[in-house]
Every structure is written in C-alpha cells, then in structure tokens.
Amino acid sequence: MAKSDELLKALAKAVNAGGGVHSATELAFMLGVPCDPAFRKFLTASVKKGLLRRVVKGFYESRITPPEPETAIYKIIKKLRSSVLNYISLESQLSHTGDISQIVMGRVTVVTKGRSGCFDTPYGVIELTHTKQPVEKIAPHLYYDPDIKMYRADKAQAIADLKHCRRNLHMLESQVC
C-alpha cells in the first residue's frame, strides 16, 4: 500500500475517534514511521497533492475528512498548547455571553498558562495571551463548554482578564468594572 493511502486510512480512523487536527509527530506515529526530515518532506508533498492542509506550522488536517468547521479552530487551540490550561476569555468570551455588543469575527481570544502567540489559521486568528495567575485562582471561574470541548471564563473572570491584560474596557455593555 502506498504511503499516501496509509495516511488516508489512518486519518479516516482518527476522524472516527474524534480527531481532525494532527501534529506531524502524531501523523508519523499513526503510520508507524519516525518523524524525520523524510517524513516531513512526505507531509509537504501530501499538502501539494491536496491530501492534507497545513492549518498552522506543524499541524495538519485531512482535506478528505476535515474537522467540523464550527469547532475546528478549537481543536487547533487545544493542539497548540496541549499541556497547559487554556480557556476562552477576553473579547471572545464577553461577545459570546453578550456582555459586549461587538461580535468578534475571525478571531478567538484565549488565555493560556503557556506562551503567548498569534496564529493565523484557515478558520481564523487564534490569539493566545499568557497569564501568571495561579490555576487555583482561575479554576473556580471556568466552566466547560461541551459544544467546543474547551473551558470558558465566566463574566467576572473575563473582565478580570481584560483588566490584567490592560485591554480596552470601553466596550463593556454594563460599566460594572
């Protein structure tokens, strides 16, 4: 079986298991090969052939069995900072709850215990903002959203994050800051 056929078979199995966005290392593991320069060259060729789409550096999705467009960006977020706490907050969360009238389009603002960064993906921009707050202080103000399979900040935490990051507070509907 050709390596590209093996890749498609592995990606189809991963979709059934809830996958959709994979790192180069995960793809190599699924195929049982080392993630070496030759494999990375194979991934580049797979992108050129249209089998894979590079969603952000080092992460790919299948063109044939892509993730659901509504939740794909959240899968990418979880892959980018998989070993640390991440939660939707700041403008994205306040827009989601209706506490700001602006609708955040094409951007998701995320607070993370990992490094800050901004990533342009086919699904929109992911803005990761680092927090030094201890997890014990943050955790009581988070809730799990089963639709996106991620945590979200409650209103108080999202406003506290805005203040902590020194972001614009003028957009808040109720000026209870």
Automatic annotation (TrEMBL):
InterPro entries for this protein: AbiEi
Taxonomy, superkingdom: Bacteria
Protein name: Transcriptional regulator, AbiEi antitoxin, Type IV TA system
Annotated source species: Marinospirillum celere
